[in-house]
Request: fold
Amino acid sequence: MSTIFLRRILAARVIAAILAGLGGLPAVVHAEEAPWPVRLRQDMARVQQVEWRLRQAADGLCPRTAADIGVALDDRRAYARTDWPLLAQVLGMADRPVVAALTPDGPAAQAGILPGDAIEAIAGEPVEVIIARRRPGPLVADALLEEIAATPPGDPLALSVRRGSITKDIFVIPARHCAARLVLETDRSVDAHSDARNVSISTGLVTLARNDDELAMAAAHELAHIIHGDHKGGGIGKRRRMEDAADSLGLQLLHCARYDAARGIGLFERLRARDWLGFLSAPTHRSFAKRLERLDSEIPSLACPPRPNPAQ
Ligand SMILES: [Zn+2]
Reply:
């Protein structure tokens, strides 16, 4: 899933107007005073944290697993060239990919990686060489995350990072998690969707979500579709059964990722109240009222299977 970066280029210049348009919705504290790159980083950090916890909860259920070190990377090549001076000024982002966010207790943070660290090499290979080999275009950060994901979990992974004027070699022990990632798309509409590999979350949804329980609810539903291998098509009865199953598994993932399921389904309550169309409400979906009723009845019996490796 790669559209985030391309969309980010398109969205960069209009995002101030976008967020002004969302002024009536709950937002990150003081979000309206911060320049757009700072707000985007806040959104990336929230999504990264939800991603870590859901991927962890989904380990053993997903069709594929991958090495996860608990970071979100960012690269200025994902933005319009005219935005580069602002990115340098506000975020200190220069020519190298940087650590945009990291899970506080994740492998990268435990090893001493810090937000803002510029990535110089992965497993001894300079990022320029990796970029040339993978030819990702503006999707440099995605390509580097895929490079990390392909390393054997449990084996120390060497990251060379530039911090200020010094370069540090830091060894990180990746965890093994569900391979599906959460991709943030700069899009004002309230949207979550998935393809066979990854989940996409719009910045509009991140802004709407009152708390991370609600954000995780939407993401977990889409992750459940990936786990079930759901495809579009089929009759309405089949689609409804798929959606019911995704709601139920999503709720369980939410709970097992240690989010508050009762608070999470509050997202549907507010979507219903606001009469949002489009988001998770195609004709194949039941009404938000019916979905809420179903999910609410499932909360008391939520349970998590024991994990083979609770440390990860
Ligand atoms: Zn669905």
